[in-house]
Amino acid sequence: MRRTVFNEDHEAFRDTIRAFIEAEVVPVYDEWFAAGQAPRDFYYKLGELGIFGINVPEEFGGAGLDTHKFEAVLYEETSRAGVQFGGSGVHVLLALPYIKLLATDEQKKRYLTKFVTGEEMWALAMTEPGTGSDVAGMKTTAKLSEDGTHYVLNGAKTFITGGVHADRVIVCARTSAPREDDRRFGISLFAVDTKSEGYSVGRKLDKLGLRTSDTAELAFVDVKVPVEDLLGEENKGFYYLGQNLPSERWGIAFGAYAQAKAAVRFAQQYVTDRTVFGKTVSSFQNTKFELAACQAEVDAAEAVADRALEALDAGELTAAEAASAKLFCTEVAHRVIDRCLQLHGGYGYMNEYPIARLYADNRVNRIYGGTSEVMKSIIAKSMGL
């Protein structure tokens, strides 16, 4: 089947990204892996390359496009090379939609110019210790000052990807108590300057995978947030968060498919080069059958991921469709990457081989952005069950 989701512009972008990865990322990636994060100056390079500005209006220094297809190319090319671009995915996929959707003209002028260049890196802080997927149960508060000039932010967040290097963080906090009939009411979003007094970054968390993206705990002690940094209307934060979930879940789905595709490539290269009992591992029937089965699953996941991408770009991707794509693609990636690691034998367990890192990186796909169990619940509800 001929793939139709990308055009010549996307393929030219792919060539640029592939060359950039080979020149700027691959030679130093082991250092990033050991350090547990990409260096801060790397994000300036991504800014210079134009990656942060693709979907930003031209008046703020961006390309003015409205598509996720260039992000899709990034997923494929980073996975193909067995690398990650640190926490930059959060900057573009998670933070930018909220700025575009909620920011006033004045806020966009302040935020987006620095966003495009990488001068200000953004993150999103929803999850709290003890709440997990129960966003409505958050305890972080933001109380309006008596003079009405600022909010006073208190609380803590955890699992915040990009949290170490972030210059601004979209923090979800309670500005009002939940209603008896609506516990989701009362949450607001704030674009918090990380240099604010009382704002602190706690531990950089030691993760199983995604080792080059900085994930941190954050704490807020009487942080003064100017009213000019409230995003959208007070108490509607939960509604805003729900609006962006389909694109976030598409990103996880497409990233998982790209990882599965890369795993087949890594395994095919390995079994073609590796000799056992005087024959290449690729010559055994079991190897052929395993890789053929993996390729069939990758083909199916590609079709699902591409269909979700087209629907997302058309503004038609529903919550249930996004959940279905995420569930299917992440479960496929789990199976495929595990089988491809098995074909590497003992070497597949060594971090010097990309398949080992891919195995660890992939595991979180069935957890963040909503667990597989949550995805099943959303799909079942859409079926009327």
Write up what this structure looks like:
This protein has 385 residues and is α+β, with helices and mostly antiparallel strands. The chain is 49% helix and 15% strand. The chain has eleven helices and ten strands. The protein has a four-stranded mixed β-sheet, with helices on one face. Strands 2-3-7-6 form a four-stranded antiparallel β-sheet, with no helix packed on it. It has a two-stranded antiparallel sheet with strand order 9-10. Helix 1 packs parallel to helix 4 (69-81), helix 4 runs parallel beside helix 7 and helix 7 (237-273) runs antiparallel to helix 8 (285-313). The two termini are 35 Å apart. Residues 7-119 form the Acyl-CoA dehydrogenase/oxidase N-terminal domain. Residues 235-383 form the Acyl-CoA dehydrogenase/oxidase C-terminal domain. This is Acyl-CoA dehydrogenase family protein. Belongs to the acyl-CoA dehydrogenase family. Keywords: FAD, Flavoprotein, Oxidoreductase.
Key traits:
single chain; 385 residues; alpha+beta; 4-stranded mixed sheet; 4-stranded antiparallel sheet; 11 helices; 49% helix; globular
